[in-house]
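Weekly modeling sync, notes
Attendees: S.R. (lead), two postdocs, one rotation student

Agenda item 3: backlog of single-chain predictions. S.R. asked that every request posted to the team notebook include the full sequence so nobody has to chase files. The rotation student volunteered to paste the first one in as an example of the format we agreed on. Action items at the bottom.

Example entry:
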Amino acid sequence: MLGLNRTFQSKIRSNLVKRRFSTKPYVTKNAARFVKDGKRVQAGLWLIGTSFCTFGFIVRGGYMRNIRFGTNTIQWKGEGPTPKSDQEWEEKFEEFKIYPEYTARGRPMTLEEFKQTWFVNKSAMILAPGAFLLHVLPMGYFLFRGYFKRPMIQFCAIYTGFVATTGLQGYYMDNHRPGTIEGEPIPAKDRHQRAIHYALIGTYFGYGLWMALNLFRKSPDQTKSLERFFALGSLRRHLAITTHFFFTLVLLTGYLTAGTGSGRSITTYPKVGNKWLPAVDDLDEDTYFLENLLNNNKLIQFNHRTLGMLMTGATGIQWIFLMKSKLGLMGKLGFTTLFILLLGQLHIGGSMVTKGMQPEYTMIHAANGYLIFATLLYLMHLCRKPNPTVLRKVAAELKKSNPKKYKTIAKRYPKQMAQILN
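Predicted structure, as returned to the notebook:
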């Protein structure tokens, strides 16, 4: 048994080394692998377009969720042509007053707010078919003309699968609501179904943007500076904390809060009432702690805000160290942008607590969250690992051309140099 355990541990260590510096034939993920020569710009612009069309849905959703659209059945449909005169707007507004959306902000809506809501609601008539056509038509054209190579065709199949899965899951969510009673008002959508829906949308957004970066940015095999590579390795380690831990949890708790009005559950944050932490009486004693984590509005909202603050604090500390490294202009600019966006997100969240859950704030909060997501994707793409053969070649050339600098780098980064040379 002890021998098997040692063998298992040895295999894990071996796999970790191979994963870090693979000795197997290396395939670079650059534009030449995915599309024919001269077609990367067209394909990249298509993916940028689909990603930002999805971004438009996210911004619209952030606004509409806070006035009961997307949460409960829309009793006011906003049907008919857009009013053209003041009298027609007044007539529509009077019709609107009989519906629950009229007081969804916690107070009666004004005529100007009604006009704003009307136009945002009608935007779906443009965004929905526009997003579908923007996805299907260029992709079909590129495939027909043979612009895409095999890996890109596989990507298109998965990318389109996300669209179909999101649509089918959204349809299921709309038509299967827990607690539905015939003759009674239709209840809100299931919280966890909504979280899955938002996660699918986020995956579609990130997957397309990542491939666009593959098409627009150069291969990591063009690395020419060991100091830059080591600085990017430091960025990669920092992102493991910022992205893979904090941002994943912030997104999950954010998806669970969206559309539930849970932002109103803690209006005294960072305190929970008179306490600094959620108390036992804030939890549902009839359910398990895990169920409270996934269902209790106070606990979810407290976790979401606290994790956001911790992520921002960790990013600020990382920013201080990374600004002193040889990260390069784009790396430093990207990480600075991330830190500024996170500070802005905290400010928006604070405004939502102090000034109320207004749709404008939730819209900006959702939009800024996905700008943070896009910035993280860019930084993750920036610090991709190059072929170890390339690094050994760069090290050999540096040792030959500038032995003094080579010794300085070897002394400053002994472990990293040993990994490259071995």
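Discussion: group reviewed the output briefly. Confidence is low (pLDDT under 50) at residues 12-27, 69-73.
Action items: rotation student to repeat for the remaining queue; S.R. to check formatting next week.
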